[in-house]
Design a protein that fits this description.
Helix content is 78%, strand content 0%. The chain is mainly α. 24% of the residues are buried. The chain has 14 helices and no strands. It starts with a helix and ends with a helix. The chain has one domain.
Length: 348
């Protein structure tokens, strides 16, 4: 090998090593924590001036209400696409579930609360398992891609509207999809980060089956392990959700979005984590508020007019609820991201 070639190769290695040292030094400068060394409070506490939980949730709701034409159209478009490519739960499956719960619920629920109790059981059944059963691989791919496009389009529309630009839904549908590969990679990472929650669910089912959760030291240790696994997943997912917003900025790569999101969460992760837990609670309560009245209406309508038993009221609503929930989540996380950015800007 010529001498010049060896020299250039060694120079490249030296330059690469120098860049690694600079990156490591900058990382340690941003991160105050050191292994086996107590971190001073002044080094890790960072302000996060955000509205309270209720007030922040109302702000997100007001934003959605203000942009209801765009976001409602988005929900309608992707709801139709989900119906075409993924499918609607069959009405026959739902009616069988209704008949089963009404037969068994007559001995469980009595009086005026009977129908509400039956509707609650129906809600738990359809919310936990759905009506479509196991999806084919093609349907799973369609569902993932449509979910990613819903996220990207909602964030793109909100960013443009909050910047004062007059855009239409068509603009978002045509322009929002460029970071889909980067968002897909972050989504796969999020799935991996949620594996501890899946292990916690398996541990809970195993403990319930074997009776370990009935009491004693074994139950205490099992509950502690479940809590630790769930906390670990939420800890990881907090910065990844912010990265799923950052990656929608043009020219941002997934790893860079993760680094920026992790820096944003540094010293604030617990407070952001609590906001995410609050978000999950609003999704559960919101789906209950939407689905339960339709279930009661469907039960009353079919009891009054049996000829309408073919009408798929609940399956259609069950198709729309995930799309609406995804738009709510994307709006909430985007507003949370903007809140952290504005707090950083005002504290400098």
């Amino acid at each position: 090998m010529p001498k010049n070639s060896k020299t250039s190769q060694s120079n490249r290695i030296a330059n690469y090593w120098q860049r690694l040292k600079i990156r490591s030094r900058e990382y340690l400068k941003r991160r105050p924590h050191r292994s086996f060394r107590a971190t001073r409070r002044r080094d890790y506490v960072r302000d996060l001036r955000l509205p309270g939980y209720w007030r922040f949730t109302l702000q997100v709701g007001r934003l959605i209400k203000r942009e209801w034409r765009l976001l409602g159209g988005l929900a309608l478009v992707y709801g139709i696409l989900v119906a075409l490519f993924v499918g609607i739960g069959p009405q026959a499956t739902y009616q069988t579930l209704v008949d089963t719960i009404q037969e068994t619920g007559s001995s469980l629920f009595e009086g005026g609360w009977g129908k509400i109790g039956e509707a609650g059981l129906l809600y738990l059944s359809v919310a936990s398992s759905g009506l479509t059963g196991s999806l084919t691989p093609e349907q799973q791919i369609y569902a993932v891609m449509l979910g990613l496009m819903t996220w990207l389009t909602a964030v793109w529309l909100l960013r443009q509207r909050l910047a004062g630009h007059q855009v239409k839904l068509r603009d978002g549908l045509y322009s929002a999809g460029s970071p889909i590969v980067a968002l897909l990679l972050l989504t796969l990472l999020l799935v991996l980060q949620l594996l501890p929650v899946a292990l916690a669910a398996i541990a809970y089912v195993a403990g319930e089956t074997t009776g370990l959760l009935s009491g004693g030291v074994e139950a205490m240790l099992l509950w502690a392990a479940i809590a630790l696994l769930a906390t670990l997943s939420l800890y990881w997912a907090t910065s990844t959700l912010l990265a799923m917003i950052i990656v929608t900025v043009p020219g941002t790569y997934p790893m860079k979005a993760l680094r920026v999101a992790s820096d944003m969460a540094q010293g604030r992760r617990l407070r952001l984590l609590l906001r995410i837990v609050w978000l999950l609670g609003t999704v559960v309560i919101g789906s209950l508020i939407i689905l339960l009245p339709f279930i009661l209406f469907d039960m009353a309508l079919k009891a009054l007019i049996p000829a309408l038993s073919w009408l798929p009221v609940v399956p259609v609503v069950l198709l729309i609820v995930p799309v609406v929930s995804l738009i709510w989540v994307s709006t909430y996380v985007y507003m949370l991201y903007r809140g952290v950015i504005e707090d950083d800007a005002t504290s400098r």
